[in-house]
Write a structure and sequence with these properties.
Layout (H helix, E strand, L loop, with lengths): L1 H10 L9 H133 L6 H25 L1
Helix pairs in contact: 2-3
Length: about 180
């Protein structure tokens, strides 16, 4: 039967679309050998390469996600530190303003105290000089009055009693001027 089939196949005109039986058998055997070889050698290596590539891509994505999460955390930490720094700077500025106000108040107070001290010292010095001038003027006025009275009377009035009279007269004059000043005020 196989021989009859082969003989009939040899007599028929070959078709381009339908292969001959020996070609079909040998083609199937070659295909099976190639298929076994690819399944046994090439497919595991191809699968291993694809798995390694998939792992590398997934690892890259995971690393990228971790890096992005780290960057986001660093950004949040930076923003927090920046806010803290701004708050601290505002506190330092406020403290500096308060210190400046306090120092200014202290300087104004010290300047006023110095001015009051200088004024008091000047007033005391003026009063001392006025008293000195008053005593000096009183002695000179007394001496002139005694000399004048001596010239009018024609006798010398340079004794202690005449000096007491002049002093009493000037004291009475001062009291009357003080009473007049009070009456005006």
């Amino acid at each position: 039967m196989l021989n009859a089939f082969v003989a009939q196949a040899a007599q028929a005109t070959p078709s381009l679309l339908i292969p001959q039986l020996p070609d079909l058998i040998w083609g199937s055997i070659a295909f099976a050998i190639v298929l076994v070889f690819f399944t046994w050698k090439v497919v595991p290596r191809l699968n291993a390469a694809l798995d390694a590539r998939r792992d590398a891509i997934e690892g890259g994505i995971k690393r990228a996600e971790e890096a992005q999460a780290g960057a986001q955390e660093a950004l949040e930490q930076y923003n927090t530190q920046l806010a803290e720094a701004r708050t601290a700077a505002a506190g330092i500025r406020d403290q500096a303003r308060e210190d400046a106000k306090r120092i200014r108040a202290e300087l104004v107070e010290q300047a006023q105290a110095d001015a009051a001290r200088v004024l008091t010292s000047a007033q005391a010095q003026i009063e001392a000089e006025r008293q000195s001038a008053f005593v000096s003027l009183r002695a000179e006025v007394g001496a002139i009055a005694i000399d004048l009275a001596s010239g009018v009377i024609g006798e010398s009035l340079n004794d202690k009693r005449s000096n007491d009279i002049v002093d009493r007269f000037l004291a009475d004059l001062e009291v009357s001027e003080a009473a007049a000043a009070k009456a005006k005020a």
